[in-house]
Amino acid sequence: MVHGEAWTIKEFFCYPNEYIYWTIQIVMYPFMTGLVAGAFVLSSLYHVFGVKQLKEIARFSLVFSFALLPVAMMPLMLHLQQPQRGIEVMMTPHFTSAIAAFGIVFTTYALIVASEIWFVYRAYFVETATTLGEKRERGLWEGILYLIYRILIMGAWDISHEAREKDEKAVKILAGIGIPVACFLHGYAGFIFGSVKANALWMTPLMPVIFICSAVVSGIALCIVTYTVTMELRKMISARKRQQKPWLPSTDELKSAEVQVVTMTSKYLLMFLVLAITLEILDLVFRGYTALKSWDILRSVIYDKDFFKIFVLQYGCGNALPFVLLLLPRLSLKRVVFCSLLVLMGVFMMRWNVVIGGQAFSSSFAGFMEYRLPIWPETMELFKEGLFGAMFVAITPFVLFFGITRILPVFNLKDSH
Amino acid sequence: MIDRRDFCKKALLIAGGMAIPLSALELFDPKRLLAEKNDPSPTRWAFLVDTHKCVGCGFCVKACKIENEIPYDANVTRTWVERYIVARDGKTYIDSPKGGRDGFTTPKIDQGVEHQTEVRNEDIEKAFFVPKLCNQCDNPPCVQVCPVGATYQTADGVVLVDRSWCIGCGYCIMGCPYGVRFFHPVYHVAEKCNFCYHRISKGMKTACVDACPFGARRIGNLKNPNDPVTKVIMTERVGVLKEEYGTKPQVFYVGLSREVK
Ligand code: SF4
Ligand code: SF4
What we know:
Structural class of chain B: alpha+beta
Bound molecules: iron/sulfur cluster
CATH topology of the largest domain in chain B: Alpha-Beta Plaits
Helix content of chain B: 25-40%
Number of domains of chain B: 2
Oligomer: heterodimer
CATH architecture of the largest domain in chain B: 2-Layer Sandwich
Radius of gyration of chain A: 23 Å
Largest sheet of chain B: 3 strands, mixed
Radius of gyration of chain B: 24 Å
Order of helices and strands of chain B: HHEHEEEEEHEEHEEHHEHE
Order of helices and strands of chain A: EHHHHHHHHHHHEHH
Low-confidence stretches of chain A: none
Structural class of chain A: mainly alpha
CATH class of the largest domain in chain B: Alpha Beta
């Protein structure tokens, strides 16, 4: 069977070679990079602009952004027909292609995040390594940790006051450089689509900007959700522990801190949400108003074929509903989390409607194509470009995050960052 | 201690000194020297389709599939034939079942999703066939977007795919406004018509040109003013497909109609 035939249904006239070639993984790709960029921007709000209230969530989202990083590459590898040659993009980039810059942008960004984390955690590494080093007997895990920290410290054992101040400065600078790079990483994903002149739906210079705004929105939303869930878990654990060790922070203390952070973050969520919606509506109005040759077919895709996905799921449930809910008075934690989940769904649908929606019509403008998401992975191809492949990508960052926080704890740190 | 004035002087000197060998690199760019001495390529391949002559037999599609080893029954093809039926009510029906490989032997029009329709003979205003293939664009977006340079343009204008280098990202498939590209079902890399490059570079015609019993397809060299194909393109009224994309397509059509997509 030809690649694409398994999930494409054609209606009316489509060119014989046309299929939906970019499927669920290409929906996941901008979604995941969006989360990376968004989480990073959130952490930078504290590090660069000194939004004090976000201190707790800043370190959290920085580490989470790090955990998301490798996952931004996964969907691409799963999508390639020749994944073993994927490295060629870095080795022999052809710079007129938007994709060719991927290697450079991605590596730069990864280096920035990694070094920022290093500066944030250096003092912690040193302190922990020193305590572990002083210990007479170390368990196996402690031994491993000790080794890891010693390697990570890379000889920079100085944790005097001045040294720490230098660290802080470095973090600030890196976070500052990181913001444009994160935006670039994601705006550039938008450029990959926006610059395809053969695709009437994709081609708009607004695409990168729309992508950046929705990226920040989704990143913040995911951080809120994950943060709250981890906090709930911590509360449960601490309630149990407190029976033996009453000096640990009480559940109420944890709770009030949490509510404050989360409601504050939701303000930023709201801000970027407004920006994202405005741009998207502008794009839609502009297309309708200028009504180019492609508008006829675009209109039947937007207002007819994909109406439910675009207006009900994306704009309705994903944008308008959380927008109203977040503005209503007496904001509660549950409501913020619920809204964040809706927003995440909305951004995912936006990616879907762009990537799949852009292929929902033939470039002959005389036919439609429908995408049927492969569910059951009967073959490798159906796994990679189907539901299970997408789930695989979606779950990985949480597993990675869990693993990373074994070494880089994000809670109960008393240092100044 | 070096003062500011001194520093500026020295910096200028160094920059200037470095510029000389660099400009030499520019001066002796071998490609440009060659280009100035003699036109690097005496050839620019172009294709001419006379839609008046096409009867929709599909011989070209068959020949192409066999010549270029595209699995015969796979639903992809390097070249295809479209049938246009314009009804009296102004509606246009288009189809190309199996790329028109088996000819158009039934009046039933393929509308996808196992759905067929038919226009009564007396309701047909006009009907015609249009063969399609890669336009070997002069400004090929597929080459522009390939992230690893696996798709490239030869000096004589044909766009080729390097099967050993393509990573299979599909960006070029998205970038081509004519829908001529697909993934090869066996090699799993981007695939498309290349004017039978292995044949034309040896002085032969393409498989489809040889297979067409009616002379609807012809190939020629635009840089040769005496080439009969060039003469037609220069002196007669020919059209190209989707000019608005700025791709500068090099497949020319005689008898194009506004319904053609
Ligand atoms: S017709 Fe398509 S595949 Fe052929 S050169 Fe033009 S853009 Fe590339
Ligand atoms: S599918 Fe192959 S030829 Fe096409 S853009 Fe990707 S790497 Fe290049």
